[in-house]
Amino acid sequence: MDNLIQNLLELDDKNFNTSTEKEVEIPRLSKATGKPFSVKIKSLTPDRIYELQDRSLDKSGSISMNKFYKGALSICTEAIVEPDFNDEKLKKKLGLHEKALKIDVIKKVFKVSEINTINSEVMSISGFDDMNEVQAELKND
Q1: Rounded distance, CA 13 to CA 108, Å?
Q2: Residue 52 belongs to a domain with what CATH number?
Q3: Boundaries of domain holding 62
């Protein structure tokens, strides 16, 4: 058993829970702009994901699709690193107040299916391989 600990001690830090980033292309926006359109996302800690996804549950602990979207949107808002959706010119273009929140901009830019895609990618790079497993865990908590 001590050899296993020694093996862990010899590993580089990159082998442990470190933040991961990934590019996620949004085909609809790539087609619309005529250029590749990707968002850079970062992984989130399991605790943070559970905290954000907790918004997906109704009072009985069941998953509400309306609330699930809000949880997924919250995760996307926190995980998207680039582009900067706090850009004032973009807010103006979308008809939003300059003090609008990043979440408001993301709701206007992406379709629900794209939010789901980004959310799934965040979950994957954060160590959750299957969204169904996360939903089942949330129900059991």
Answers
A1: 39
A2: 3.30.2220.30
A3: 19-140
Task: Give the C-alpha distances (Å, rounded to integers) separating 73 from 4, 80, 89, 106.
Answer: 40, 10, 22, 8
Please state the domain count of the chain: 1
Indicate whether 13 belongs to any domain.
no
**pTM of the entire structure?**
0.77
Is-contact 67 58, C-beta < 8 A? yes
φ, ψ dihedrals at 24, nearest 5°: -125, 115
pLDDT (tens digit per residue) in 46-75: 888 888 877 666 666 666 666 778 888 999
Distance CA 110, CA 113 (A): 8
Contact yes or no for 75/44 (Cβ under 8 A): yes
